[in-house]
Amino acid sequence: MSVSNSALSGLRAATTDLQVTGNNVANSGTYGFKQSRAEFSDLFVSGVPGIQVGNGVQVTGISQEFTQVGFSVTGNPYDMAINGDGFFVLKGVSNSAPKFTRAGNFTVDREGYITTQQGDRLQGFGAADGTITATVDSVVIPKDTAPPTPTSTINMKMNFYSGESVLGLPFDKDDPKTYNTRASVEAFDSLGESHVLNTYFVKTADNTWDVHVESDGTIIGSGDINFGTDGTYQTSTGLSALLWTPGNGAATNQSLEFDLSNTTQYGSDTLVKSIQSDGNSSGNPSGVSIDKDGMISVSYSNGDIKTIGQVALAQFDNPNGLFAAGNTSWGETNDSGRPLINAANSIGAVKSGALEDSNVDLTEQLVRLITAQRTFQANAQSIRAGDTLTQTIINIE
Question: What CATH class does 153-277 carry?
Answer without folding.
Answer: mainly beta
